[in-house]
Amino acid sequence: MLPKGTFSGRVSVVTGGSSGIGEAIATELARLGSDVAIVGRKQDQLDAAATRLREHGTQITTHSVDVRDRESVEATVADLLARWGQIDHLVNSAAGNFQAKPEDLSPNAWSAVVRIVLDGTWNFTQVVGQHMIERGAGGSILSIGTTAAMIGGPSTVHSTSAKAGVIALTKSLGVAWAEHNIRVNVMTPGPTEGTGAMTFLFGGEGQWDEQVQAIPLKRMLTRQEAADASVYLLSDYASYITGHNLVIDGGRSLGRAGGVFGG
Ligand code: HXC
Q1: In this predicted structure, what is the pLDDT of residue 263?
Q2: Does the keyword Oxidoreductase apply (predicted)?
Q3: Ligand 1-lining residues (CB < 6 angstroms)
Q4: What's the pTM?
Q5: Nearest Cα residue to atom 36 of ligand 1
Q6: CATH code for the structural domain at 11-247
């Protein structure tokens, strides 16, 4: 979608960058010229993703980090700055999730997911944001939302609540850091093909046939479409967009809005 070289000379950090939507965004950033650091928990998965990303010819580094661990996040950002001297873009795509009845969630189960999704996003966002402010060259930050954060997720109350926090964090920082020309946005996908959410969390893509028919556009989002929208928000082409939650769900969360008037 964007011209080649859109991100030349830029450095991007993508948490959760070795799979799913995170990898698709990292791929698009590399294809458009950015050096990319991918962050994840599993080194073998990071190595495999890095091999694929290097096909695009930019520098790719891997960082085995648990985003909940503040000290590791700080050390990783320090390493990146020692290597490159700058970070221009951050994508928070690391997530953890499972289905459970709310009444059955243990305190630790709630905490594990909230700490990955909300604290993890905060950890990277604050540490990278501090660097961007100090450097004085602006930057852009993108997090991944979920439509469940707006309409509810009865079997994923932990993840859904944390993602709602990510949206509020984004709106807050969009205003707070505007004076530093740091733009902060969320890309909120609906059900997306080839993601962990669809392949294991909600029981496999075959389970979705009926629900897909309820999506106004009658299909799931592709990872490429999610990545295209994401790199647009990260790029200078979106230079006046901040604190925004871009919902890309084929009209799913509006699906019932027609009601008796719309048929
Ligand atoms: C109930 C569970 C559970 C499950 C873990 N727990 N899995 N409880 N059902 N299926 C409980 C454990 O019993 C434990 O509580 C606590 O959660 C922590 O478990 P750990 O395994 O020690 O945690 P950890 O190793 O930190 O793993 C984090 C994880 C893990 C979130 C639990 O499943 C994970 O990282 N999954 C892979 C990532 C992922 O899910 N990606 C897809 C995201 S899709 P106790 O009390 O026993 O100690 C997505 C889309 C959002 O986010 C949109 C959808 C609404």
Answers
A1: 44
A2: yes
A3: 95-98, 100, 106, 108-109, 112-113, 116, 146, 148, 153, 156, 159-160, 196-197, 201
A4: 0.96
A5: 96
A6: 3.40.50.720
